[in-house]
Amino acid sequence: MARRGRYEKTYEPKETLSPWARAATMLVAFVGMVAFAVVLARLTLEPSAASEALTHSNFTPGDSIGEYLEQPAFRDTVKQLGGNILLGVPFGLLLPVILPRTRGLVRVGVATALTMVLVELAQGAFVTGRTFDIDDVILNTAGALLGYLVLGRRLGRAVHPRRHHWWHRFTRRNATDV
């Protein structure tokens, strides 16, 4: 029996979901994303007249995070930092299921960052008592990356199996080539 080298692997496709199961999973993910969008809008785009005098824009990464960490009330720190991280997790879970082209750590991060920058710009421009904060974008993106690494990657691969491009014919070896 010939010994296979380190790079000589055979391609064995994984079982994929049936078309109905894929459609159902994508529908559930889409409904989840719509529900998340409603929650996101309610949390970030509602006016807050009471905090109008306390708000200021933050374009320097780390400033708001430093202020949160210096607060004497640990509960408020956890609420601010943890809440912003948790707000990004659904992106990491649902984007790879709904949009197969967003699979990948960098793609999920970029899509989340762009979306959150738009939300923050809308907040700062149109909502009373709310401002743009780059640290919110950073924390939301970190949450999306965490969600992708924990479960989103597996969900995306279960619904959308890996594609094998034409060049894989030349770069992969079969068991008969040994």
From TrEMBL:
Record keywords: DNA-binding included?
A: no
Task: For this UniProt record, give its keywords in alphabetical order, as a comma-separated list.
Answer: Membrane, Transmembrane, Transmembrane helix
Q: Membrane-spanning regions, if any?
A: 20-41, 81-99, 106-126, 138-156
Q: Where is the secretion signal located?
A: none
Checking PANTHER family in the record gives:
INTEGRAL MEMBRANE PROTEIN, MEMBRANE PROTEIN-RELATED
What are the VanZ-like domain coordinates in residue numbering? 34-150
The record, for InterPro entries, names:
Teicoplanin_resist-assoc, VanZ-like
* Entry protein name: Putative integral membrane protein
